[in-house]
Amino acid sequence: MTTIRTSAFGHRIALEMPLRGAALLAASTLVICALLLASLSLGSAGVGFNDALAALLGSASERADLVAIEFRLPRALTALMAGGLLALSGALLQGTTLNPLADPALIGVSQGAGLAVVALAVLLPNAPDAWSAPAAFGGGLIVAVFILAMTGARSGASTRFLLIGIGIAAFLTALTTAILTYGRISGAHEALGWLAGSVRSAGWDEVRQMGWVSVAALAIMLLAARPLSALRLGDDLAASLGHIVSRARVLLLFGSVGLAAASVSVVGPITFVGLLAPHAARRLAPTGPGLHLALSWAVGACLTLAADLAGRAAFGAIQVPAGLVTALVGAPCFALLMLRKHRKESS
Amino acid sequence: MVEIAPDKPGRITVRGLGVRRGETQALRGVDLDIVPGAMTALVGRNGCGKSTLLKTIARILRPETGEIEVDGTTLARLSPRAAAQRMALLPQSPILPEGMRVRDLVAQGRHPHRGLVRHWSPEDDAAIDAAMAATDTVQFADRRLEALSGGQRQRCWIAMTLAQDTPILLLDEPTTYLDLSVQLEIMGLLARLARKGRTILVVLHELNLAAAFADRIVMMRDGQIDAEGPPSEVLTAPLLQRVFGLDARIIADPDTGRPVCLPRTAA
Amino acid sequence: MSIRALLPVAVLSVLLIGALAWHLGAGAHAVPPRAVISALLSGGESYDAAVIAGIRLPRALGAMLAGASLSAAGALMQGATRNPLAEPGLFGLLAGAALAVVAAQGVFGLGAPSLVPLLAAFGALVGALMVWGLTTAAGGGAGMLTPVLAGAAVSAFLAALTTLLNLVDERNFEDLRVWLSGSLAGLRMPVVGMVAPWALAGLAAALLLAPKLTVLSLGDESAQGLGVPVARIRVLTLVAVVVLTASAVALAGPLAFVGLTVPHAARLTFGSDYTRLLPASIALGAIYLLAADTVGRTLIAPAEISTGILTALVGAPVFVALLKVRG
């Protein structure tokens, strides 16, 4: 397999990437750009394709500029980055638990973040909006720490990790639904929309917020690649290769939770992206952990962007939150993955 | 004339090692010197502690008492990375990573030699090439691991441990679940590696494989060393009776002169 | 019958009557025990009597029926699947029932209370079959994980559809949002009267199935060898579970974890012989939901804590503890 290699300072910094991976990354960048343009031009307020392009270049009419740049661009960028973070989070989670069905929205991390935000809105209705992001982060983190404390850091515990996570998710969902009944109906309805995972209200503040997290995600991606690939070989082998297995696993899990919580805090719990994107990425390029993370990011970004676009444009006047689109598409895909896993194990 | 001691790297010294696994005392006061540059086979009944000993040397299990030295350095004082530069482990049934290419698997062995942002170097390539040549796996380089047969996979795993470029190689039952001809192939490979100067410590289930290929045999019983020495000294009828509860004759292989254990089957 | 066998019956009866009395007497407007009894026996025109007969009694009966039904459903599922985590909520039945009710009311305008049990039964059946089918296709009948994963996926899918309908129709959501969280508030006698026959039939079926489930717990092949028609028992169990779940949902909305908590609590004292476990689960389930509802009404009176919050708060630790013990 052909690879691209670069190095500097007498090989002190050296990176490599298979040619096919680089091509795929370039292709997904193109898809993202196309989806972005589509996001800018499609929707209830018609802005033509050319107008959207012109708005990006700063030469459009005032109205096109307003719709495309002030409303649609931040929304699209937020969807893109949130999806990327979720996908990365899912890839880390699957790599550390060695379970291909792990997903931050399946094991309660997203639900913990969601409950924290809803509880904040109901218990402290006058709290400033800026509190909801740290609250979501805290909520997700508490769930992850709790599951970790209950299961320990060994890979053999991954079944229990998933089971406890699913139980926690059911528990938190029940609590969130019940808490919703205390709010005023308008607030509850709005919260319901957020809980369904929506980028509807995203503006440039959210874009900035997501941008910083994405920069952190890039660092995590570079550092996590090698421990992740070693963990795939099993704990014993990873340890004998010089990895400190339990520490690596805990750090990777925290990274995963952090990324998911950061994403949930802005767009709400979008389900199944963290599950499906890493699988799709593996299908596209079956090897290389670093590349796998990068491709997962790209696929997750595309999925969420497309889901937001579909939910916004496909159903006419009804705006369907991106999270519902991903759930309705993702659940059947999840079922297919379960079947595939079984076929593989029994053959 | 003074005989000069061979100053090969890879000497393992075990002193007073005690390991507890759950409720049971798996190792009770093990003292052992592993001869460098030779293949030593660990044998004994199920549950005698042979795998425990190997895993403790490999730092997978933690000793309760005693210590392990590698070339005069206490193992516990080495960082995980430094220890991984001195010895490599092949566990009994390593997890089969989905979709991994053989060359990528072998490249994993380079981890202890890599830096934080140095993902490859010419030395890495050389080590990987050499490891794959030594194990005759070059032709599989771009294939996926799960597409290979059991014996081919095992050679790839061994290539990975070779790429780690360590003086010591630890293997836990590397021939289990393989056909007899493949078992011989793997053992032959390990014997060649030992002749080239690696210290090889291998847990074996099959006594006759140990007798045919190992330079030294360590027999374990109830978490202790029962006998240790070259196959011709250790493989004796009384010892087999004591360690394995086995009524057997020992005959010499007409080709190699090595001992062969022949259990009595007549009723 | 020996004293030993009668003792648990006596204890459970006392507990049930105690919980019922507490439920009827306590609340935002406390009613003394004597007034409770006289209101129940002779009716009357007093305010106390009106509160008891018109508001609390239907609610208490609803709590008992819903708790008993969910617990019996959980115990049946655990017996038929030999999976300790089997429960209407985790296995997709509640999500299916909720979706069916929301869809019928929102989309088709079928809001009549008499239809709710039927709709819920249909939805629960669909949810159960989806999870069962996916689990079987994925070859995971034996392990704990596969059915739970299938349940999570199916629940996520059905819940997304429910949310979608709620988002589209804000008025329908307002009507149903309290019910969706699992609550007994506002339950009236006609509804209880309508659901009660279903629930009682389901409970009777559960009791009849109990001895077969004990044999089934030895494994399919042993059960077959002992002459139990395994497949037919499974189908009958599914029908009973669906009817029980639907009754509970019609009364109290989708209450998670009750079907998990109660049978396992019963297991601690009554062992795993289903001929003892099922009656015990039924009685304990009635007591449990009566107590939970009373606590929910009195703790921060005059406001109420939704029953769903309380059952989730109790149920989640039980779930985690189960995994701790079995893992």
Can you describe what's shown?
The complex is a heterotrimer of chains A (347), B (267) and C (327). Chain A is mainly α. Chain A contains 13 helices and two strands, in the order E-E-H-H-H-H-H-H-H-H-H-H-H-H-H. The radius of gyration of chain A is 20 Å and the shape is globular. In chain A, 56% of the residues are buried. The model of chain A has no long low-confidence stretch (mean pLDDT 81). Chain B is an alpha/beta fold and 267 residues long. Chain B has a domain at 12-96 and 167-263: Rossmann fold, CATH 3.40.50. Chain B has helices at residues 50-57, 80-86, 102-108, 122-134, 150-163, 180-195, 207-213, 231-234, 237-244, and strands spanning 12-21, 24-34, 39-44, 65-70, 73-74, 87-90, 168-172, 199-203, 216-221, 224-229, 248-252, 259-263. In chain B, the strands form three sheets. A six-stranded mixed beta sheet of chain B has the order 6-7-8-3-9-10, sandwiched between helices. The radius of gyration of chain B is 19 Å and the shape is globular. Mean pLDDT of chain B is 88; it is low at 1-5. Chain C is 78% helix and 0% strand. Chain C has one domain (3-306): ABC transporter involved in vitamin B12 uptake, BtuC, CATH 1.10.3470.10. Chain C is globular and about 60 Å long. Chain C has 327 residues and is an all-alpha fold. The interface between A and C is large, with 52 and 54 residues.
| Secondary-structure element string of chain B | EEEHEEHEHHHEHEHEEHHEE
CATH T-level topology of the domain at 12-96 and 167-263 in chain B: Rossmann fold
- By CATH, the superfamily of the domain at 12-96 and 167-263 in chain B comes out as P-loop containing nucleotide triphosphate hydrolases
From the alpha carbons, calculate the radius of gyration of chain B and give it in angstroms. 19 Å
Number of strands of chain B: 12
Please work out how many helical segments of chain C DSSP would assign: 13
At the fold tier of CATH, the topology name of chain C is: ABC transporter involved in vitamin B12 uptake, BtuC
Ends of chain C: how far apart?
39 Å
Shape verdict of chain B: globular
Question: Biggest interface and its residues per chain?
Answer: A-C, 52 and 54 residues
- Report the uncertain regions of chain B: 1-5
The level of helicity of chain B is 25-40%
Q: Separation of termini of chain B? A: 55 Å
Q: Beta-strand level of the residues of chain C, as a percent range?
A: under 5%
What series of H and E elements makes up the topology of chain C?
HHHHHHHHHHHHH
Radius of gyration of chain C: 20 Å
Organism (chain A): Roseivivax halotolerans
Transmembrane segments (chain A): 76-93, 105-124, 130-149, 161-185, 210-229, 250-277, 318-339
Family (chain A): Belongs to the binding-protein-dependent transport system permease family. FecCD subfamily.
Membrane topology (chain A): Multi-pass membrane protein
